[in-house]
Amino acid sequence: MIVLPIFGRKIRFMKNFIEELRWRGMLHDVMPGTEELLNSGMTKGYIGFDPTADSLGVGNLVQVMLLLHFQQCGHKPIALVGGATGMVGDPSGKSQERNLLNEEILAHNLACQKAQLEKFLDFNCGEQSAEIVNNYDWFKNFSFLEFIRDVGKHITINYMMAKDSVQKRLDSGMSFTEFSYQLVQGYDFYYLWKHMGISLQMGGSDQWGNIVTGTELIRRKESGEAFALTTPLIKKADGTKFGKTEGGNVWLDAKRTSPYQFYQFWLNAADEDSKNFIRIFTLKTKDEIEALEAEHEKAPHLRLLQKELAKDITIRVHSEKDYNAAIEASEILFGKGTAEALMNLSESDLLSVFDGVPQVEFPKSALDGGINVIDFLVEKTNIFPSRGEARKMIQGGGVLINKGKVESENRNLDSADTIKGKYILAQKGKKNYFLVVLK
RNA sequence: GGGGAGAUACCAGAGUGGCCAAAUGGGACGGACUGUAAAUCCGUUGCGCAAGCUUCGGAGGUUCGAAUCCUCCUCUCCCCA
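The joint structure predicted for all components is written out below.
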C-alpha cells in the first residue's frame, strides 16, 4: 500500500489483493464476487489460528503472511485465535480423533500466539489496524440448546456429511464433537460478519469446507453475503512436507527453534522451492523478485534467493541482531579455515552461535596431563555410544575437535585444546556439533 | 471352539546342526564430490585395541557344537465355526 499525504490527509491507493496473491502463487480457491468486494474498498477479513501449540510454526506462516499481504493491500486483517474451536478440534486433514486441550494450556497457547502475530501485523495504523479476536468470547456463554436452535437449525446434516473432512472419516469413525466443528467455525464467521462487519474469511485450502459452512450459515440465517479465499498447500520440490526438518517442526518461537536454526531452515531450501517461498514469505515486489531470480540463475551456487529469503524472514520473525548472529554462526560452522575464527570468538558470541547445539558438561580437572580423544568422546561425554564407533569414525575422518580433524585415535587433549579454557567444540561429521562445557 | 502359519539386528527379509555376529535390500551415520542442494561413488552399522564376549520372542533340554532339533510358555497373523 502506498500512502501519500495530500491536502493533509492520507489517501490510500489499494493494490489488487487477488492479483497480488495470484502472482505470488498464494491463491488456491476464491469465491465468486470476492474480487469485486475487495476492489470496492477497505475490506475486513480474518483467518483462524488453531491453538494446538504455544508457538506458531512455519506452516502457519503462510496464513500470517496472507494477513500481512492483506493489510499491505489496504485492508483490515483480523486474526482469530481459536479458544473455543481449539476445545473442539478440527477434523480437517486429521485421520484420527484429536486429544482435547485443557483450558489452562489453551490460554497459555493463545497468549503466546498472539504475541507472535503482533510481530507481523500493524496494530496501530488507524482504521486498517490489525485486530485479534478470540472465539471463546462469544462461545463461553452460548448454551448448547441455544446453539442447536440458532445455528444447527440452519444447516442440514446432509450438507455437513458431504464435506470432505467428514467423508474421509466415515470409515475410521469420528465423534459428534469433531463432526460439529464445522458448525462452530461456521458460527464464528457469522458472528464476525454480524457484529464486526467482516465479510471475508481466508485460510489454507483444507479449510475450504469449514469456511463455506460459514458463508452458507450467513446466507441461510440472514440472507447475507460473505466471501472466502484459500491458499494452496505448500509443496516442496522433493515431495516432503513443508515446515519440518530432521529435528521436527520449525517454530517461530526462539526457545523452540533458535534464530540460527530458523535461518538455516530457509537457507537450505531447494532452488525450486526458494522461488516459491520468496514470493510467499517476503513482501518483495514482483520486479525485485524477478531481478533476484535472474541474478540467481547466473550464479546458482551463491544461493542468492535463499539468502534473501532467509534474511527477510529471519529479521521479520526474530530481529536484525539475531539475523547477524545467525550469519556469523553459519560462517563459523560452514566457512573455511575457521579454527582461528572460532578461537577468537567472544564468549557470548560463542554461546549464541552454539545455541541449540547439544551441550555436555565435563570436569575440567580431567584435562590435566592430557586425556585420550576416545576416552573423552565416549566415557566422559557420551558423544559416541561406544569406543568402537568413535574409533571407526576417527579412521573415516569424521571427527573434529575445535574444527580441526582428529588424525589419530591416539591423539590426546589437554588444556591447549580448549577455547578460552572453558569449552571444547566436538564435531561428529559435518553437521553434528557438541559443545563441551568444562566445569 | 477347531485348524494352520509365524516371531531373526532400526525396518523388511534370507538362513533349517558347525563354513553365522548372521545373506540381501531399505534406512541411518561417516567420507569423497558439490552450493550447507540433488544425484553418484566409497565406507560403517552388537560390545571389545585384541583374545574374546553377549545376541536370532521367553524359559528349559538334546548335542563336542543350536538362530537351526525337542518340551513348555508368551505373543502375532490367517482360515473354518
